[in-house]
Design brief:
The protein is mainly α. The chain has one domain. Helix content is 87%, strand content 0%. It has three helices and no strands. Helix 1 crosses helix 3 and helix 2 crosses helix 3. It is elongated.
């Protein structure tokens, strides 16, 4: 009986850990790309455009992070559909978004065989949102530091 129980969950763990790892790698690559663009934009324009440019940079970073999360939801939804865990793509997307955000998808439930996979996606969602939060905190810290440096440079050239 123990062997059957473990075998039953093996597919969930295989799919879940593969998707979780892939999502974290994709998210990290995306955050690194955002960071590269952010550093370039911060170095070139913040001194000239101040708060407006800083807010545009922040809004752009948030938008791209939201797009990353949407892509990751889509990848998980595709897995739910391909495995037969959910019969319709729309339901797969709704369920995945609910699991990723840990809010749940009202009225959508995985096939009994794949129930563990939804919990693994919720775990992935917590990791991904944690990475995004830490990244945004870092961006805000760097923006604040860059604005302080720009003000000091302006004062030193004026006076």
């Amino acid at each position: 009986m123990l062997k059957d129980g473990l075998g039953f969950w093996a597919s969930d763990w295989y799919w879940g850990l593969s998707l979780l790892t892939g999502s974290v790698v994709l998210h990290t690559i995306g955050l690194q790309a955002i960071d590269f663009g952010f550093e370039h934009a911060l170095a070139s324009k913040l001194n000239r455009h101040g708060h407006l440019h800083a807010n545009i940079l922040l809004a752009t970073a948030v938008s791209v992070i939201a797009l990353l999360h949407a892509i990751e939801v889509g990848i998980w939804a595709l897995a739910y559909f391909v495995t037969g865990a959910l019969p319709a793509p729309v339901d797969a997307i709704r369920f995945s978004l609910g699991a990723m955000t840990t809010s749940g998808a009202d009225g959508v439930s995985l096939a009994a065989r794949w129930k563990l996979l939804g919990g693994i996606e919720a775990m992935a969602g917590m990791l991904l949102f944690g990475l995004s939060t830490a990244f945004l905190f870092g961006i805000l810290s760097r923006l604040s530091g860059a604005r302080r440096r720009a003000r000091r440079e302006t004062r030193s050239t004026d006076g």
